[in-house]
Design goal:
About 30% of the residues lie in helices and about 15% in strands. By secondary structure, the protein is an alpha+beta fold. The protein is globular and about 40 Å long. The chain starts with 16 loop residues before the first helix and ends in a 14-residue tail after the last helix.
Length: about 240
């Protein structure tokens, strides 16, 4: 049994722990496995005088994407939101129709002197999601869950497209990557109840099954980039 989208907003108190543990035991085979990959051959150049930059990634439900990047050293903020569509349709219920052009996305603000754009991409492909899935991630399906890198400039586009080509050439996965690269035309923060969702609801069955393993993979594969205390939108 895989918890579907209809379960995503259902929460249970801690006494559900035993039942959830049984459920987890039956779904461990589903949990995404990290794929160990090299960093991109080319990266966005950094300057010792620039300490803030941003990147926008879409890779399935934004709860897990945000939750992973909040544990990356050098990230100063990670905000769940929507990108790819118009401002007037950047609302959870509308985006859920799959007809707005939006993807559930996360805007990552980071210090490029501590972590580079290319290193964020490496984490994105390795542990954040399965980049070979087309318009779906885990139990969630639709264009709003597509694998997309929203680029803000030509440097980001060059690095992102080059890295996709590099990973495909290396056959890092058994299938070609489904990840697309789109120009960032706007990012719209999601509703407040979506922010810090993984931290706020650690015992949600959806989070335990689909997203906690991603954070564990980050800690395991990227030990030098992992930090235990997440940087939250609402500390």
């Amino acid at each position: 049994m895989i918890l579907s989208r209809t379960w995503r907003l259902v929460h249970r108190p801690l006494q559900w722990g035993a039942a959830v543990a049984v459920l987890l035991g039956s779904t461990l085979a589903y949990a995404e496995q990290a794929v160990v990959i090299p960093p991109p051959a080319h990266d966005v150049a950094s300057s010792p005088n620039i300490h803030s930059a941003s990147a926008v990634f879409a890779g399935g439900c934004f709860w897990g994407v945000q939750g992973v990047f909040q544990h990356v050293k050098g990230v100063t903020q990670a905000v769940s939101g929507y990108a790819g569509g118009q401002a007037q349709t950047a609302h959870y219920e509308e985006v859920g129709s799959g007809e707005t052009g939006h993807a559930e996305s996360v805007q990552v603000t980071y210090d490029p002197t501590q972590v580079s754009y290319g290193q964020l991409l490496q984490i994105y492909f390795s542990v954040v999601h399965d980049p070979t899935e087309l318009n779906r991630q885990g139990p969630d399906s639709g264009t709003q869950y597509r694998s997309t890198i929203f680029v803000a400039n030509s440097d980001q586009r060059q690095v992102a497209e080059g890295y996709i080509g590099q990973l495909n050439a290396a056959k890092a996965w058994s299938k070609p990557l489904a990840t697309t690269v789109e120009d960032l035309k706007g990012f719209y923060p999601a509703e407040g109840y979506h922010q810090d969702y993984l931290t706020q609801h650690p015992y949600s069955p959806y989070i335990m099954i689909n997203d906690q393993p991603k954070v564990a993979n980050l800690e395991s594969v990227f030990k030098d980039r992992y930090r235990d205390k997440p940087v939250l939108v609402n500390p």
